[in-house]
Design brief:
The chain has 230 residues and is mainly alpha-helical. It has one domain (9-42, 55-223): Up-down Bundle (Fumarate Reductase Cytochrome B subunit). 62% of the residues lie in helices and 10% in strands. It has eight helices and two strands, in the order E-H-H-H-H-H-H-H-H-E. It has helices spanning 17-41, 57-85, 100-114, 129-154, 160-163, 168-171, 175-207, 211-217, and strands spanning 3-13, 219-229. It has a two-stranded antiparallel sheet. The longest helix is centred in the last third of the chain and has 33 residues, at 175-207. The protein starts with a strand and ends with a strand.
Length: 230
Amino acid sequence: MATARIATYQKMYVWELPVRIFHWLNVLAILVLIATGYLIGAPQKIFDAAEPSQQYWFGIVRFSHFAAAYVFFFNYLFRLYWGFVGNKFAHWSQFIPVTKQRLKEFYEVVVVDILHIRNEREVGEGHNTLAGLSYFAAFLIFLFQAGTGFALYSSMSDSFIPSLFAWVVPLMGGDAWVRQWHHIAMWFFIVFTIVHVYLVIYHDWVEGAGETSSMISGWKFRKDESDDAE
């Protein structure tokens, strides 16, 4: 008797509301920071058509950059906190492979998703191990970018938070070097964003787990196959 493979889906609540808010605030802050950061590093002469007294576009750009930086920084601190108090999918164990199961998953992701040696692997509910490691690396770059940015801002601000990073400037050899590394890190965010969006869409298409919509609704789907007699 022939059998048909029927795909069924189990609905799972993965991303809590605070994680989703963090994600979309981060998206907005990063987009503003990239756009304004590029203009600060390479001001466009097209805006110089009017008299300086009749415009304040560069001041608006700088203010937007600084405001987005504060949103980015405190959003980052919140995510650090939620990595300890959130559900298992938000926990820091999702980002660093500390168990045998997570190390096995890392191997499977490399073999299937990157090298395409095999066609199938077990699909987890949260971040796969390779994605978790890449996000952990991104968090470190986040910290570096925030630190160098506030270090540059400390010379023109008496605020408490920028003053905490004033020591970064002499450590890195002066404002010019800090500004250069801050600019280079901006390109990491650009490349990371492109790769991240591509992989989310790719996994959504291949795995059918609701990867894209899950960061809006919080829900993902695990596919189980069962035999059904015809």
